[in-house]
Amino acid sequence: MTSEPEGGSPNRAATRPEWDDWTSAAGHEGHDLPLDAHLHTDQSPDSSVPIDVYAALAVERHIPEIAITDHVDFDPRDPAYRYTRYEDRERTVRDAAERWAKHGVTIRFGGELTYNRRWEADVREHLARYRYDYVIGSVHDWPESPYWPSRVGAWIEGRSLDEIVAPYYTEIIAAARSGLFDTIGHLDVVKRYLHPHITAAELAARPDLQEPALRAIVESGVSLEVNSSGLRYPGAETYPSGPVVARFRELGGERVVVGSDAHAKGSFAHRLGEAYRHLVDAEFDHLTFRRGAERARIEVPGGTPIGTQG
Ligand SMILES: [Zn+2]
Ligand SMILES: [Zn+2]
Prior knowledge:
This protein is of the alpha/beta class.
């Protein structure tokens, strides 16, 4: 589906029909996008989607490359702690990759590893022992975190916003500096943990809160993920939001990647076009993704820096 471009500069108008395609209101189903690099299958405790379901959707939607990034947790109290064996996950993904290659979809074997300084040594050991094509490091709501639903209200009480988000961003900065990961996953998911006590709008009014984390990501050279799953939650913003992606670029950030973080069939590539759009708006023209030994540069469709088109 295409629609008439709105007004504005000729450069913008020239790219508009494509935007409308990607972000069409009809179900927000991403299609004709080069990569979805964050997907959970039934090898994650919080998903029951067989890998072939995503592969078939990728074929149908013309998304030629996907990464399966099932959860790996390191605290025995976390749900994906020894939930599956590495060998089983790898075999499942590699077998599927072989089955689906002839249909035009490439499936990469990735992982989403939950990071915290207290188990960094375990993450390091895991990555020294096991090989992935691609590794996301994410900070989740760890067992003793103040963001746990039963604790978050008391944590917020009487504290400034700076103090409230500090434990989360301290871990993000350490994750970036650890050098362990290709990508930092869903950068500001803390906004989901703080909802409804603190709104996304209140956090957006304080962009300085994320600044040290963005600088650490730029300096370490790890990729910043733009994760469209946040669009499915209150606040309805990508993780991180468009303005944060733009700020990352201003600070000298060059490496970005995208993912829908689907845990259900209906979330595959869901509103992923909006994540791509944030990249184009911030003048990124490629994704930085790892395919095993190769660091791949994948063109962002329509990603010619705005204002420089002929
Ligand atoms: Zn995650
Ligand atoms: Zn995830």
